[in-house]
Amino acid sequence: xxxxxxxxxxxxxxxxxxxxxxxxxxxxxxxxxxxxxxxxxxxxxxxxxxxxxxxxxxxxxxxxxxxxxxxxxxxxxxxxxxxxxxxxxxxxxxxxxxxxxxxxxxxxxxxxxxxxxxxxxxxxxxxxxxxxxxxxxxxxxxxxxxxxxxxxxxxxxxxxxxxxxxxxxxxxxxxxxxxxxxxxxxxxxxxxxxxxxxxxxxxxxxxxxxxxxxxxxxxxxxxxxxxxxxxxxxxxxxxxxxxxxxxxxxxxxxxxxxxxxxxxxxxxxxxxxxxxxxxxxxxxxxxxxxxxxxxxxxxxxxxxxxxxxxxxxxxxxxxxxxxxxxx
Length: 327
Known about the structure:
Layout lengths: L7 H13 L2 H8 L3 H15 L4 E2 L6 E2 L1 H26 L7 E7 L6 H12 L4 E7 L1 H9 L5 E5 L8 E10 L1 E5 L6 H5 L6 E5 L4 H12 L8 E3 L2 H9 L3 E5 L1 H6 L7 E5 L6 E9 L4 H26 L8 E2 L9
Parallel strand pairs: 3-4, 3-5, 8-9, 8-10
Antiparallel strand pairs: 1-2, 5-12, 6-12, 6-13, 7-10, 7-11
Helix pairs in contact: 1-3, 1-4, 2-3, 5-11
GO molecular function: DNA-binding transcription factor activity; transcription cis-regulatory region binding
InterPro entries: LysR_HTH_N, LysR_subst-bd, WH-like_DNA-bd_sf, WH_DNA-bd_sf
Family: Belongs to the LysR transcriptional regulatory family.
């Protein structure tokens, strides 16, 4: 059988176009010109002698032959990347690239310290750092646009990714310090304070809504916000209340004297913040990042909260592989 002259770059371009259906999107994503992307795509098809994509449709779709070939390309590129990573990451000092995403919950103190530590540990590494909401980080990891990410565990899990739980962050009730309302009154709709929702596009918002449905609670929907700072600020203003977490509260330090946290009445619940990696990412780098993160989380999050709210000590805590709640 005659061998084809397939190029690795051509296969990478084909995989990207197969997923997006658009040469223009791949050009924008890779920084290549549209003509260069089209040239690589044509090269793969001409080398194989078959049409892999239906070019007459927008977005383009895979032909039957393209669907079959795409499965093999994905497996093959995954093995190549894994081999490349293992060769360059056996010695941390030789690691050449790290595409890292971190949820904005960790962006104040943890992310800068982690970046400084990694820069010292991997002096030859090029870092590509992203701060995103959790759902974006999980998506970018699934699309292989990140190697490592810290995010809230999605309700449905993170299929195809390796997870290393870091922090149990329980949900609590945030009330104005000046308010005499009980959390039970707020949940029952008997408070004059306005309920503030986290956006239901975010994982934290979805977790809250899911728990409210389990409790058969229906709360008014006047405010639905993506900004944690705005939510805590409006609670501090004295007119509102929210379901939040200790870590979310901790990020809004300037409002602490005007906001009081209370245990969630009835059946409590929590979110899990975890380190996620692609399944082929080397274990030694993952272990180093996870160990460093747990040390920084203890210093910058758990210890300050345990001083301000000692009653949270047993529920706001580190998670490890041997913790039953980490699973």
